[in-house]
Design goal:
The protein is mainly alpha-helical. The protein has helices at residues 3-30, 32-39, 41-99, 111-149. It is elongated, with a radius of gyration of 47 Å. The termini are far apart.
Length: 150
């Protein structure tokens, strides 16, 4: 190529490069954070990688949350079924046990020990009965004295 054609191509390339870089430079001047990222490419790369890692973590957390939500949503009918029929089965079991329940047996088969336990319990019940009778008499006496004052 001749020198004239070479200079024409150089000037055309310079104009094209200038026409593309001028709007970019004005935009970078208007946005200082973007300009700083362009001037510090390693920091920009680190920030991009960090942002991607945070985004992946966020999407994973959202995925686990929705998975747990769907699992619990599908378990609700099972819980309902179990609570309805499980409660019915427990009620039937208790009713059958109460109808076939035998009198309470003590741990010892020795009749003298059983007799001692029964006598001790009767003595205890007699003391409680006497205390309740005393309380009842005092309440009746108080109620009678209040009725006389009215």
């Amino acid at each position: 190529m001749n020198p004239f054609g070479q200079s024409l191509l150089d000037s055309l390339g310079d104009r094209l490069l200038e026409s593309l870089s001028t709007p970019l430079q004005t935009w970078l001047a208007a946005h200082p954070i973007a300009q700083w990222l362009v001037m510090h490419p390693l920091w920009a790369l680190g920030l991009i990688v960090g942002a991607i890692a945070l985004l992946v973590g966020l999407l994973g957390a959202i995925g686990r949350l929705t998975e747990n939500l769907w699992l619990r949503l599908f378990q609700v009918p099972l819980w309902l079924f179990a609570s309805i029929f499980g409660g019915g089965f427990q009620l039937a079991k208790r009713l059958s046990q109460s109808s076939t329940r035998h009198p309470r047996k003590t741990d010892s088969d020795n009749p003298t020990q059983q007799l001692d336990q029964i006598l001790a319990r009767l003595t205890e019940l007699r003391r409680e009965e006497e205390q309740l009778l005393v309380e009842l008499k005092t309440l009746v006496a108080e109620a009678g004295s209040e009725a006389n004052h009215v």
